[in-house]
């Protein structure tokens, strides 16, 4: 009993400094950032850097300004850029990484060398990657000159400086789009819960989906965030940044998938062949389902990276290229160039909420899984 008590005291003594430091440098500063985002610190240039600035509580005014203010169209385009970047970045990394892993899983000649080559980009920082790809994507050189090697004309694609865009939508329709997406997710959750026999979860998800549908039909069309239409879409300037990001991180997903493939027992493959499964069927019904936990983990990590991306965009497109900007870059400019600390803190809080939407459900599921196994 004394030994158990002594071990507990030692554990508390060892963990307490870390808990204190995390509490101060993580959670205190998160709370401080949220508090600052609810004030007007920096709205008055004379008070921004004053020794004792006069700071007033303004509530959600900064958030309202970001989503519906006339001067914050850049931030809204950056949110759209982040959405498209996240989708294409995750899909690209998973697709390329899985393809490379499947090739290496067949034990080609020089496998170690190929694995090193595929993993090498991951060892570079995003600043180095951004600098390399910025040189390669110069409109007057680099990739645009590649057709001349085969006797063709050089390409004229503007890459990082392009202002063309597709998949445009009116920002005023954002509430309706959000309601539709969330409603679809809730319907899927309700269907899965019904199949698993979870009656309460099915009813709650179905009720929430029904409320969203009713809101979208009767109230949503009347909600206008802006006085006039404001179109946003996928800017072609993001294509080069997506290619560079996929080039750097696909080796990481390759390593994850390769580890998963090597961890699948050979007996399962042999059993599938004995049952008459062709290669395509074996991958579809045996191997890919076993890789789904790895896919989920990779999506969480890549989503976390994409939402906070800053250095790659800064190195490739610069701080003033609105077509290729992201919220983290805007947060830096707003806070440390314009000294609008409250507005910058609001952008940072929005990024925190976006990351939490990705991380928290995953962590909750992991804890629930661990409790189930224990």
UniProtKB/TrEMBL annotation:
It is found in: Cell membrane. Pfam families: BPD_transp_1. Its main location: membrane. It is a multi-pass membrane protein. PANTHER family: ABC TRANSPORTER PERMEASE PROTEIN. This is Glucose transport system permease protein. One of its GO terms (biological process) is transmembrane transport. GO terms for cellular component: plasma membrane. InterPro entries: ABC_transporter_permease, MetI-like, MetI-like_sf. The chain crosses the membrane at residues 9-30, 83-104, 116-136, 174-191, 203-221, 233-261, 282-307, 341-364. Belongs to the binding-protein-dependent transport system permease family. Keywords: Cell membrane, Membrane, Transmembrane, Transmembrane helix, Transport. Residues 79-364 form the ABC transmembrane type-1 domain.
